[in-house]
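Ticket #4471: structure export looks truncated?
Reporter: QA, pipeline team
Priority: medium

Steps to reproduce: submit the single chain below to the structure queue and open the exported record.
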Amino acid sequence: MTILDIPWARLNLCCGILPCLPDCLSIWLFYLDFLYLVLFRVRVLVSDNISLFFLQMLPPSRFV
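Actual output as written to the record:
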């Protein structure tokens, strides 16, 4: 395993070097996609928990 096998090292080595630009862009897109998925999951979990919390605080409804 060389240093080029580590994505962030390839990103640091390749960015700014024109021949490596497609590789650099693919790594950036991978990281952005990963971050978007993680943040989206966290946001969904947090919003679900908040809505459940407020639903539990409501008085029981007589009209079901």
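Status: closed, not a bug. The export was complete when the record was re-opened. Leaving a note from the reviewer for reference: The chain is about 70% helix and 0% strand.
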